[in-house]
């Protein structure tokens, strides 16, 4: 299935947000996620079904100064 992740088209095989994050290499990482502009909490990710053409935003905290 083709989706957009942070504005880039990606082909994935997972069907829920948790599976897709794992497939993309986001394992044991502190993240904030949104699908189609709506926040998805950590607790909801494994139940949140993703459909073709959905837009996923993934944000990770960064240190800097």
TrEMBL record:
Source species, domain of life: Bacteria
Query: Where is the organism placed in the taxonomic lineage, from the top?
Result: Bacteria, Pseudomonadati, Pseudomonadota, Gammaproteobacteria, Enterobacterales
Q: Which InterPro entries match?
A: Beta-grasp_dom_sf, Mopterin_synth/thiamin_S_b, Thi_S, ThiS/MoaD-like
Protein name (Swiss-Prot/TrEMBL): Thiamine biosynthesis protein ThiS
